[in-house]
Design goal:
mainly alpha, three-stranded antiparallel sheet, 11 helices, 3 strands
Length: 248
């Protein structure tokens, strides 16, 4: 309602209106909101060309989260080791979540991945994730399935037969290889189109160039991942004289 906080659905309508080239006043009229509300919302969250409804909604939640007293916070405050400040760690986890969302991950998936990355063990159970994030186990399960399919987490059973979700050093390497190989079907299909459309035709030339480009990028990505893989196992602070250089 006018004067109340924008809902996620309203932010989605703003994003659609911007994509359609509507003026702020027209978007506001359709939402029954003041034009100034829409203008502030867009300019506060990247401007008309960079506005994204999900990120804008999350940023607003984060600002409200910071304004609430500690007793009213949603996600559970986890005791920290190594002299860390729990509030600073929480703020960093929120920032990492937003970066994962910007890269294309859904909100809950990004939250689960960020939570795993800020733990020293890099390993949590479904119940631990649900407790830390204050969400349902079903939401965690759905997010983990998405991440596992992308090779961004792996599952294993601990000594108590509980399923644990883990982020380890080799997962980024495996994910990069998967990303490179995901182009294979597109390359093959593009080259099939060359035969269908006839060699030396403009459409066939376009498809052949796409296939050659993706081939080159995939091969380069795999080669770079192989050369740099050992970086994932290098401990920070290793003396430069003792550190093995990638590809050596």
């Amino acid at each position: 309602m006018p004067g109340g906080r924008l809902t996620q659905q309203e932010r989605q309508q703003i994003a659609l209106g911007l994509a359609d080239g509507l003026a702020y006043a027209e978007i506001a009229r359709r939402l029954d909101r003041p034009t100034s509300t829409v203008t502030r919302e867009v300019m506060r969250n990247g401007g008309p060309t960079a506005y994204r409804a999900d990120l804008a909604h999350r940023a607003t939640e984060r600002r409200a989260h910071r304004r609430r007293p500690a007793s009213a916070r949603g996600p559970e405050s986890v005791p920290q080791s190594h002299g860390r400040d729990a509030e600073v760690v929480t703020e960093y986890q929120e920032r990492l979540t937003t970066v994962f969302m910007t890269s294309g991950l859904p909100k809950m998936t990004a939250r689960v991945l960020a939570c795993l990355y800020v733990t020293d063990s890099g390993s949590l159970t479904a119940s631990e994730l649900a407790q830390r994030l204050q969400v349902s186990p079903a939401s965690v399960s759905k997010a983990i399935t998405f991440l596992a399919n992308m090779d961004l987490v792996r599952r294993e059973r601990d000594e108590r037969r509980r399923e644990r979700y883990i982020v380890d050093d080799d997962l980024w390497y495996q994910s990069m290889l998967r990303s490179a190989r995901s182009n294979d079907e597109l390359v093959e299909t593009a080259r099939q189109g060359v035969a269908v459309l006839g060699p030396d035709t403009p459409a066939a030339t376009r498809l052949e160039n796409v296939a050659r480009f993706l081939d080159f990028v995939s091969e380069s990505l795999v080669r770079a991942a192989e050369q740099a893989r050992e970086i994932l196992y290098t401990r920070p602070g290793t003396a430069s004289g003792d550190e093995t250089r990638p590809g050596s």
